[in-house]
From TrEMBL:
Belongs to the class-A beta-lactamase family. It comes from the Bacteria. SUPFAM superfamilies: beta-lactamase/transpeptidase-like (SSF56601). This is Beta-lactamase. It catalyses: a beta-lactam + H2O = a substituted beta-amino acid. The lineage of its organism: Bacteria, Bacillati, Actinomycetota, Actinomycetes, Micrococcales. Keywords: Antibiotic resistance, Hydrolase, Signal. NCBIfam families: bla_class_A. Its EC number is 3.5.2.6. Pfam families: Beta-lactamase2.
Length: 319
């Protein structure tokens, strides 16, 4: 195993060889404690910043190449301990279709755009709006939904019509792309709406991102200062209320850890999950796991995502 620093960023590490290395860097933000989830989310509160860590490779390499071989899949991981700045990376600069994980970022961008007060705005739901997999919006055709209801349906139920209404409220895919660019993300390419964004055709950069960019974007919205405290509280409530991720990042973590996530599924066996994880009494961990397979009609495997996430958290010394 070799560990080589990426250039020129001080916040990156390149892993060369068959195993994943844990790289400790000095780029962690002030940690935040776990929210109390009792019907409505409390905004995570600040705790003192951790002391600046030293740079050192992990003594326990992570065999994600073995997981790839076992599941006949490609997997990308970016996991960061926000208290120490330690990061676990594997293929974190490779592109994957983001699928429905983009709904979490769209919700964050909406909160940034309209604030909590703007979430009460009513939007019509027409029959012509409906696309495949819309368990919430299909019951509201002919009526209206608030932006809060639209975003909640998109994040917690992965409702595709709600996602399109959310994008429309932002000004379309290009507007979300610009919002992510404002975060410093020059990697993610937001191009299409549901369900076309799930095509995941090889070599097509539309509707793709990298594990690193996905994790950093969610961290900016859920833990950073892009949103006010009340806006982060709403986003946290949506993420922790997600019903589609039980078999993914949270599946192999301790039951008393709070997890807020957004899953995604697309062509070529794409299965993703991006999450903020709050261990009791510790700084949050941000995890992005993205996976796909070679064949267009391949099935995805939730267990691959769950195993990769658990291995990454364990490599951070937090398992």
């Amino acid at each position: 195993m070799f560990v080589v620093p990426r250039t020129p960023s001080p916040c990156r590490a390149l892993v060369v060889g068959l195993f994943l290395a844990l790289v400790v860097t000095g780029c962690g933000a002030s940690p935040q404690v776990a929210p109390t989830i009792t019907g409505t989310a409390s905004s995570p509160g600040s705790t003192p910043a951790a002391a600046a860590p030293t740079t050192t490779p992990s003594p326990s390499p992570l065999p994600l190449d073995e997981l790839e071989a076992r599941y006949d899949a490609r997997v990308g991981v970016h996991a960061v301990d926000t208290g120490t700045g330690a990061a676990v990376v594997w293929r974190d600069d490779e592109r994957f279709a983001y699928a429905s994980t983009i709904k979490a970022l769209a919700a964050g961008a909406l909160l940034d755009l309209v604030g909590v007060d703007g979430l009460g705005r009513q939007v019509p739901v027409e029959a012509d709006d409906l696309v495949v997999f819309s368990p919430v919006t299909e019951t509201r055709v002919g009526g209206t939904m608030t932006l809060a209801e639209v975003a909640e349906a998109a994040v917690t139920r992965s409702d595709n019509t709600a996602a399109n209404l959310l994008l429309e409220a932002l000004g379309g895919p290009a507007a979300l792309d610009a919002a992510l660019a404002a975060l410093g993300d020059d990697v993610t390419v937001v191009s299409r709406t549901e369900p076309d964004l799930n095509e995941a055709a090889r070599g097509d950069e539309r509707d793709t991102t990298t594990p690193r960019a996905l994790a950093e974007d969610l961290r900016a919205y859920a833990l950073g200062d892009m949103l006010d405290d009340d806006e982060r509280a709403v986003l946290t409530a949506w993420l922790t209320g997600t019903r589609t991720g039980d078999a993914l990042v949270r599946a192999r973590l301790p039951a008393d850890w709070v997890v807020g996530d957004k899953s995604g599924t697309a062509g070529y066996g794409t299965r993703n999950d991006v999450a903020v994880v709050w261990p009791p009494g510790g700084a949050p961990i941000v995890v992005a796991v993205m996976s796909d397979r070679a064949d267009r009609d391949a099935e995805h495997d939730d267990a691959l995502v769950a195993e990769a996430a658990a291995a990454a958290v364990a490599a951070l010394g937090r398992g």
